[in-house]
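Question (not urgent): is this output format expected?
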Amino acid sequence: MGNASSSQQAAQSETPTFFTQEEFSKLKSEFETGGVEKVQSLLEKKVKELDDTELNIAVTGESGAGKSTFINAMRGLLKKDKGAAAVGTIETTMEPTGYSHPNLPNVRYWDLPGTGTTRFTAGSYLKEMQFNKYDFFIIVSAGRFRENDAKLAKEIKRLGKKFYFVRSKIDADLNSVQLEGGEFDEDVEMETIRSDCVSGLGKAGIPDPTVFLVSNFKKNMYDFPRLMKALADGLPNKKESVFVLALPNDSVEIIWKKREVLKGRIWMLATIAAGVGAIPVPGLSAACDIGILIGAINNFREYLCLDAAGLHRLAGRTGSSVEELKTKAGSPLLGEITEHVIVKRLRLGAVFVAVSAVEAGLHFVPFIGSLFGAGSSFVMTYAILNDALNLLVETAEKVLAITNGAE
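Got this back:
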């Protein structure tokens, strides 16, 4: 019974949750009447749709709250990195400024001018910031949330959008309390600060608000992990997957969430490979589309922050060169991905063994299980990409450990 349960749990991770029920029903119907060829165009369209999905996140609040630093933290950047948001002790943003994710240009964080600046009153602010374009709002404050914050939240709610209160610089506040001397209990102090924020917002007309206490420089501490989960859970499936892939690799949990999202795409890529004019890859017993394999593995690396730009940023944090970081990580998938790498350096023995495991896992998933028998291209593409993804996840975990050890 334990084995059956494990197989079902594994299969559930493969379920294509970013499809609507209508889309999934159409896929099944098309496959039943026309086989793999009939569903290829639908899947190609879905893959493109996922790649093109836009996510616009507004970060607002009073000037000096740390909005720009928060945006950099969410994108895995320091202020010295290329493309980082300008950080200063005075208000540096005078109009909405969009900052794209380093690897996902359709994911943008918008740094909105502080509501407390002389240029904007609360009324004009609501009109000029084009609130309808954003998927959700993060209202940041470095102290108590004020009347302007509550007014913004009410307007956002009126528009049917989600909003989240983030109390920044919690590490500095706790450090100040500790320096005052006497007994210090971090949990007690955090609840005192949280209660004060909640109370202030309640008096301003926001009943029972949830407030996240964060440090932009300590993303594995305080409420930062809880905030990431809340932001992801508040999005529809398709945008949730994009948000997860856009997160920096700050924890093993985030890396594994990315793994689950990417595993959900592999069966679509394998299906597309099953019917296109496949290019035989020497050394494999089945024909695979080498272009799909190379493209997918390169995309996996970008999402897992293992591409050239991502490794360069991480190397800067460890004080080592990119080549030194690659050597420490010891992965064959950190260099150029070629046909030779796929044939000779991927653990193809494990791939062939994995085929039976793939079949067992897919058995519980409607429609996808039928695709497994569609041909050798599907089988081998699916197995190779699964093996490549697992290897890249292991590499991302090693790189995270190296980076954490250097801090």
